[in-house]
Amino acid sequence: MKDRLPALIAVVLLLVLVVTTWWAADYAQRAVTIEAPRRLTHEPDSWSRNFVMVRTDATGMPINRIEGQYMQHYPDDDSYEVTEARAIGQQAGTPMTIATSNTAIMEQDATRIVMNGDAHVHRVAHEDRGPLDVTSEQLIVLPDEEIVYTDLPALVVQGNSTMNGKGMRYDNKTRVLQVFSASDVKIAGQDAEAAPSEKQRETGSTP
Prior knowledge:
Elements: H1 5-31, E1 46-56, E2 62-74, E3 79-89, E4 97-107, E5 112-123, E6 132-142, E7 147-158, E8 161-171, E9 176-180, E10 182-186, H2 189-193, H3 196-203, E11 205-206
Parallel strand pairs: 9-11
Antiparallel strand pairs: 1-2, 2-3, 3-4, 4-5, 5-6, 6-7, 7-8, 8-9, 8-10
């Protein structure tokens, strides 16, 4: 019996240590308030005035510039909202385009820009082609693809020619303009005669 006494004492002490450790851990867990994970809502987490963002190509040459008077970033969808927005596309080999609107939302790492309110895209004159202007309440710009489109009513003006329609798509790389459900088309004679192959694509409409 005397030989077993030290072993029994060791077992009892071990049990006491285990119970005490469990109680201390449980008490600490109940005593410390654990905050729930922060819920992401559509609220801005940063802002900037006189906002300017420049994107470059693989060689470091600027190809797109986005600017505005005020910018807010939303972490839930990683989007940016810009007031008095101005987006400039200046890729090599294609005419420069300048898009403006009251507000704009930049999405998908600025590869998609939704221009809202008095949206206007101006393509400068290039070689034998005059300037092209598109206005609508909303225009969606894909800077990398150099595409502008909308499903809303739009007015297209080129030279003395005008075209009203619901929905349009313009590809600045191919210079192809499509206006869907055109309701009012006026093609000036001088526009129809100048560069006929290009003009046909730029002022052509599809049902």
